[in-house]
Amino acid sequence: MKRDFQSCMLYALFGLPLFLLVFIAVLYVGNCGLSTDCSQASLPGVIHTPIPTMIPATLPAEGSREPVSGQVKCIVTARILLSAWVSSGYRETDPFQFSDIRGNTCQGTFADVQPLFTEANLWYSGALACSQCHNADITTASSQMDFSSYQGILAGGKRASPDTQGEDILGGGVWEASILNDMLFISKEMPFGRPPGAVPDDGPTIQAGVPIQVP
Fold it and tell me: Which end of the chain has fewer CB atoms surrounding its CB within 10 Å, N or C?
């Protein structure tokens, strides 16, 4: 009995490693053949899932707006655009004319002007939209002034209530006499928090309006 046990132990000690070597050899030869680099392997080819080329995303340049529907837009500074709008009577839907920085005669509407009041990061990087602080909630709005809408701009500043008319900020159509011109371009107190030198003298350059043919 003792001899049988010793024989079993010897078979186990020497047989198990031999079995493992044979098992590994079978697996290798079965998958890679007799080559050492698996060049003779009969494995199916790798099927790659096609990945479409992705078009890199682009963002509009800071302080500018992209043309809509492929239409060529004029390039103009905030000061020229605001001055032309106010001097033409600051209407909401009627078009007004201005000259852009390339010398083109252009036509715009209040829709071209409004982003100067309602878009963030337009006047300088990190700038809040003017309408963030000057909004329809007159009780809490800065200077009791609303830049979020055309009606709010016309209602002026320092309003006692939402239903009252406040101080005219558009100079009655005289741009040089307007509070808006003074705050943005003369005293340069606005937009709020502007770092020194962050805003050009004529404000940001944007794309607005369209070129027109003048007879």
Answer: C
Give the DSSP H or E segment for 32: helix 2-32
Task: Look up the pTM and report it.
Answer: 0.65
Q: Around 153, how many Cα atoms within 13 Å sit in the side-chain half-sphere?
A: 26
What Å distances lie between residue 45 and 13, 42, 52, 55, 163, CA to CA? 41, 9, 21, 30, 76
Residue 213 contacts by C-beta under 8 Å, 6 or more apart in sequence? none
Give 62's contacts (C-beta < 8 A, 6+ positions apart): 121, 125
Classify 60 in phi/psi space as left (phi over 0), alpha (psi -120 to 50) or beta. Answer: beta
Tell which residue, 107, 82, 80, 81, has the closest CA to residue 94. 107
Residue pLDDT, tens place only, 106-144: 999 999 999 999 999 999 888 999 999 999 999 899 999
Here the tokens at position 81 are 């655009």
With beta carbons less than 8 A apart as the criterion, state whether 69 and 153 touch. no
